[in-house]
Amino acid sequence: MMFSEKTRRGLPLLLFAGALAAAFWRAPSPPAPAFEKPATAAPSSLPAQFTAERLPDAGESAHAATLAQLPDGRLAAAWFAGSREGAEDVAVWFSVQGRDGWSRPRPIASRETTAGGTFAYLRKVGNPVLYAEGSWLHLWYVSVAVGGWAGSSINHSVSTDGGASWSKPNKLQTSPFANISTLVRAPPVPLADGGLGLPVYHEFIAKHGEWLRLAPTGQIVDKLRMTHDVRSLQPAVVALDEQRALALLRDAGPGPGRVQVSTTDNGGLTWQAGEALPVPNPNSSVALLRLKSGRLLLAGNPPNGREAMLLWISADAGKTWQPTRTVESAPDGGAEFSYPALLLGRDGRIHLAYTWRRQGIKHAAFSEAWLDEATQ
Amino acid sequence: MNPVAAYGLLAHALIFAALVSQLPLGEFRSRVALAATALSLMVGIAPMLHGIFGTPSLTLLQLALLQVAGRSPSPLSFKPALGLLCFVALFYPTALGWGPFDPYALGYQPWAILAALIPVALALFWRRQTLWLGILSLDLLGYASGLFANLWDVLLDPLLVLVALAIVARQGVIRLIASRTR
After folding, report:
1. Domain span at residue B155?
2. What distance in Å separates residue B143's CA from the closest CA in chain A?
3. N or C terminus: which one in chain A shows less Cβ crowding within 10 Å?
4. What is the pLDDT of residue A1?
5. In which element (H, E) is residue A204 found?
6. In a domain, B69, yes or no
7. If residue A159 lies in a helix (H) or strand (E), which one and from where to where?
8. CB burial readout A283-300, b (16+ within 10 A) else e
9. Is A117 close to B2, i.e. CB distance below 8 A?
């Protein structure tokens, strides 16, 4: 069949119109964002208790622990370990706390497995984040192909058997420039639509927190910035209600640092910088948790360094903070107790994991009553 | 198999073949390009490019395919290359953290970008840039396939920008030499 010149000329435009319609059809239009309603505050009935133990070693150098509770109630931990931070032999290690204590760690993501799953060269892996969502156990972790941590991108893997096996990693596309400079450190917050809000951060050119909105399918549907006057990193987020959330960030400015604040009152659609807390932050990661009583718990370091792991508590949604406990401290120069991760167990116990002298990971479990003993 | 990862790997293999096919290979060009595709997968060039540059855009892949197929001259001539460089001179710094506005985030719910592409397409049609209109249409179909979460990643990537930079620089050098020899 012969087309007239006019028809032939119009065909590309017709093709474009069809492609545009298909693209409009594909473009996501998620509902207005909202957080999953936080659990109703209730007093914790647990007596004062505190236990702590080292997790089995996985390498000469260990850092950046993360915690999750499996559907069967067991606690799972992941962290990165190897000969030194950033070395090629560093892997993300996984251990589960059973009746006999923590299991022997096993690697669940390495340079080799990540390269094999993403079909892309990479140089090192780093910060992991675990999150249990029903029978799914999510693992996000950073990897770098070129340069330092500022060149990181985020990989995502899922286990449906409590961490025994993991899906091949999938790289989250979060940046237009070789997908660099999005890192993860703190767990996500569940959203009302079944998706997740994942706090992440950016280190290249500028340093600031970011918020990735993930659809229930895992697809990124939005990305927001948490900007401050000072450089800030590693947001840790808790939802206060369906619309409001509080993010506390590491102060990466020239110092003396204070814990930086970002807030949202529209489900994470926009984030505003708040006034920095009167809580010190020596350019180190913090962890944030909403307790069973509705109070907020913050874990971090003292003003001058990482030689102590400290806790603060807030009974007014993060407006004011009182120091409660020093979980561990040591006066020697090599002491480092850093990169805390907090988790509220289903029994109301609070779990804290942190880097122990860069040699290993320590886990502490305690109750709200133990915290209250220190503030009374 | 992760479809995005597989796409990225194979696309980089073809892009490498397109780079190789720039050499003056005469009648062996297509065979050498095929061999370069296989070689880049076997010796790790494609995974290396994939790791360093990330997932290539469909625009770059289509330009590479046109190059491998022997279509000359490339639609990425001096003017489109210069236009792309001007655009990314603002886009990349802002998307990478300069200032509070992140234009890359617009690509996750790209209604505004899709709407902005309508006058672009009409301009291409008006100027009889049929090939670019076809490339843009296939880009959009690629986005509609669900392979890409962000529309910007379909349209452009840093390797495409490097190619554009090379084209503009080459043209600049040619003009400089021409002006000196007058």
Report:
1. 75-182
2. 6
3. N
4. 53
5. none
6. no
7. strand A152-159
8. bbbbbbbbbbbebbbbbb
9. yes
Is residue B76 within 8 A of residue B167, CB to CB? The reply is yes
Distance (Å) from the alpha carbon of A41 to chain B's nearest alpha carbon: 35
DSSP β-bridge partners for residue A296: A290, A314
Contact A117 B156 (CB under 8 A): no
Our count of domains for chain B comes to: 2
Tell me, yes or no, whether B39 and B87 share the same domain: no
Q: Which of A71-80, A107-116, B57-66, B92-101 has the lowest mean pLDDT?
A: B92-101
Residues constituting chain B: 182
The answer to whether B121 contacts A175, with C-beta atoms less than 8 Å apart, is: no
Residue B62 within a domain: no
Q: Looking at residues A314-341, what average pLDDT do you find?
A: 94
Q: What is the dihedral of CA A177, A179, A182, A188, to 10 degrees?
A: 140
The reply to whether B87 and B50 lie within a common domain is no
Query: Tokens 């449906």 correspond to what residue?
Result: A160
B43 with B106, same domain?
no
Q: Residues for chain A: how many in total? A: 376
Supply the pTM of this predicted model.
0.95
Q: Find, among A254, A248, A234, the residue nearest to A126 by Cα.
A: A234
**Average pLDDT of the segment spanning A323-334:** 91
A&B contacts, CB < 8 Å: 166
Quote the CA–CA distance of A181 and A353 in Å, as a whole number. Answer: 26
CB A260 within 8 A of CB A304: no
How far, CA to CA in Å, does B4 sit from each of A51, A138, A142, B55?
45, 19, 18, 8
**A340, A34 in Cβ contact below 8 A?**
no
Handedness of CA A195, A197, A203, A205 (dihedral sign): positive
Among B102, B128, B139, B157, the residue to mutate for chain A (most A Cβ within 10 A): B102
Contacts of A294 (CB under 8 A, 6+ apart): A38, A41
Residues B92 and B51 in one domain: no
Is the CB of residue B115 less than 8 Å away from at least one CB of chain A? no
Alpha carbon of B3: minimum distance to chain A alpha carbons (Å): 10
**Are residues B84 and B155 located together in one domain of the fold?**
yes
B11 touches A: beta carbon within 8 Å: no
How far apart are alpha carbons A354 and A133 in whole angstroms? 23
Reported ipTM exceeds the 0.90 cut = yes
What are the start-end ranges of the E strands in A227-369?
232-239, 245-251, 260-264, 272-274, 287-290, 296-300, 308-314, 322-329, 337-344, 350-356, 360-366
Residues B48 and B80 both lie in one domain: no
Residue B160 lies inside a defined structural domain of this protein = yes
Of A16, A30, A153, Cβ closest to residue B137:
A16
Q: Which candidate, B88, B91, B68, B66, places its Cα nearest to that of B76?
A: B66
